[in-house]
TrEMBL record:
Species of origin: Bosea rubneri
Gene that this polypeptide is encoded by: cysW
Subunit structure: The complex is composed of two ATP-binding proteins (CysA), two transmembrane proteins (CysT and CysW) and a solute-binding protein (CysP).
Location of the ABC transmembrane type-1 domain: 77-278
Topology versus the membrane: Multi-pass membrane protein
Function of the protein: Part of the ABC transporter complex CysAWTP (TC 3.A.1.6.1) involved in sulfate/thiosulfate import. Probably responsible for the translocation of the substrate across the membrane.
Keywords in alphabetical order: Membrane, Sulfate transport, Transmembrane, Transmembrane helix, Transport
SUPFAM superfamilies noted in UniProt: MetI-like (SSF161098)
Localisation per UniProt entry: Cell membrane
Stretches that traverse the bilayer: 31-54, 75-103, 123-142, 154-173, 214-236, 257-279
Residues making up the signal peptide according to the UniProt record: none
Name this protein carries in UniProt: Sulfate ABC transporter permease subunit CysW
Length: 297
C-alpha cells in the first residue's frame, strides 16, 4: 500500500485546523474573546488612565506645578512616602517569616495562620479602619490608657501606618508561600547537613530561590500602600496638611471643585503605578532566563 493511500494523521492536518482541535474553539471565537478583552481594558483601564493625565495638564504646566507644590499637596506626598517606607519593610520581614514557617515547617495551627494571612482580603478596608478606631480611639478599648500616657495613635501617623500594614500584609506572604512550597525543603536540609547554620541557610539558599516572588510581592505591597484609601480615611481623620495621604488629598480637592489640582495629584499616583509596572517589566525582560530557571526549579 502506498503512503498516499494511508489515512491522514494528526500531524498532517493544517495548522489552523490543528489549533482548533486543541483549543476546541474556532478562530472566530478566539479572536472575539481577544477583542472583548481589549475593549474591556481600553474602557476600564487605559481610557481612565489617559483621562487623568489629560485633565491634569488641561490648564497648562504652570497650574500643574502649582497644584503639586502647594503646601498641603507636598505634605500629603511626604506622608504617603513615609507610610509606605514604614509599612512595606515591615510587611517584607513579617511576610517572609510567615511564608517560611508555613511552607517549611509543620506545626499546630498552621491552617489557622494561613487563614489569618488572608483575612485582610476578606474584610472591607473601612471595617478594618473602624476596628483600629474602636481599639485606639479616645473612646476605644485602649483609649483611656493611651490618653493618660499622652500617646496618640488614631488621627495620627501611627494609626495610618497600622491601617496600611493591615491591608497590605497578605501581598508578600501570598507571593512567597506557593513558591516556597513548590521548592520543598531538600536544599535547606542539605545545607544544614553540610554544617550551615539556619540563618546562613536562609540567606544563601531559601532567599535566593524566591527572590523574584519576593520582588513581585514587594511591588504589589508598595502599590497598595501608596494607593490605600478606605482604611486610611477612617483612622486619619482627614486633617488637611497633617494626616492626609495623596488619595485622601485627591478626594478633598475634588469635593472642593478643584478638579485640575485633584487630577494633578492623581497623576502622581498614576505615574508611580506606571513606574512600578515599567520597573517590573524591565527586570522581567532583563532577567528573563533567571526567572524562567527559578520557576522551573
Amino acid at each position: 500500500m502506498s503512503d498516499a493511500s494511508l489515512p491522514l494523521q494528526a500531524e498532517d492536518l493544517e495548522p489552523a485546523r490543528a489549533a482548533r482541535h486543541v483549543s476546541g474553539e474556532s478562530r472566530l471565537v478566539q479572536w472575539s474573546l481577544v477583542a472583548i478583552s481589549l475593549a474591556f481594558l481600553c474602557l476600564f483601564l487605559f481610557l481612565p488612565l489617559i483621562t487623568v493625565f489629560v485633565e491634569a495638564g488641561a490648564r497648562g504646566w504652570q497650574a500643574y506645578r502649582e497644584a503639586i507644590l502647594e503646601p498641603d499637596a507636598l505634605a500629603a506626598i511626604r506622608l504617603t512616602l513615609l507610610v509606605a517606607a514604614i509599612a512595606v519593610p515591615f510587611n517584607i520581614v513579617i511576610g517572609i517569616a510567615a511564608a517560611w514557617a508555613i511552607a517549611k515547617f509543620e506545626f499546630r495551627g498552621k491552617s489557622l495562620l494561613t487563614s489569618f494571612i488572608d483575612l485582610p482580603f476578606s474584610v472591607s478596608p473601612v471595617i478594618s479602619g473602624l476596628v483600629f478606631v474602636l481599639l485606639f480611639g479616645a473612646q476605644g478599648y485602649f483609649g483611656p490608657w493611651l490618653k493618660a500616657h499622652d500617646i496618640q495613635i488614631v488621627f495620627a501617623l501611627p494609626g495610618i501606618v497600622l491601617a496600611t500594614i493591615f491591608v497590605t500584609f497578605p501581598f508578600v506572604a501570598r507571593e512567597l508561600i506557593p513558591h516556597m512550597q513548590s521548592l520543598g525543603s531538600a536544599e535547606e536540609e542539605t545545607a544544614l547537613t553540610l554544617g550551615a547554620s539556619p540563618w546562613r541557610t536562609f540567606l544563601t539558599v531559601t532567599l535566593p530561590n524566591v527572590k523574584w516572588s519576593l520582588f513581585y510581592g514587594v511591588l504589589l505591597c508598595n502599590a497598595r500602600a501608596m494607593g490605600e484609601f478606605g482604611a486610611v480615611a477612617v483612622v486619619s481623620g482627614k486633617i488637611r496638611g497633617l494626616t492626609n495621604t495623596m488619595p485622601l488629598h485627591v478626594e478633598i480637592l475634588y469635593n472642593e471643585y478643584m478638579g485640575a489640582a485633584a487630577f494633578a495629584v492623581a497623576s502622581l499616583l498614576a505615574g508611580l503605578a506606571l513606574v512600578t509596572l515599567a520597573l517590573k517589566t524591565l527586570l522581567e525582560w532583563h532577567f528573563a532566563d533567571a526567572i524562567a530557571a527559578s520557576r522551573r526549579h
